[in-house]
Design goal:
By secondary structure, the protein is mainly β. The chain has one domain. 10% of the residues lie in helices and 51% in strands. The protein has a 6-stranded antiparallel beta sheet.
Amino acid sequence: MSTWAIAVKDSTNTYISDETINRPNQDMETQKTSNTQVLPLADGSTVLITPSVKARSEPMTMFFANTTETFRDKISTYIDNADDVQITTHTGEIFTGQFTVMKRVWFVGIEDTYDIMVTFTRFYNSE
């Protein structure tokens, strides 16, 4: 299975390698949304207003199946510390942001197996 490299920003604003993780187990969407607003005018027509920050990268949701306690603890620590994280995928694509949500599903009847769904909130201009 392919892995993704994780780096965490330190006190000198440098991203330091923090091992690798297995890539997610389901397809995920990356979405960019325009900040342009459509405003109606008095004559019934509309105008488009685009602020200086033209777009935002929406959060990504990732699913990981049959995770280890070590992996869950790592994600939990990123959330607790509000760590700035840089993810480099197996294709070389880079995402920067923070892990903001971890939802755990415990399959009680199957030993101690946990799946997790995490939300990674991307910083401005993080493709």
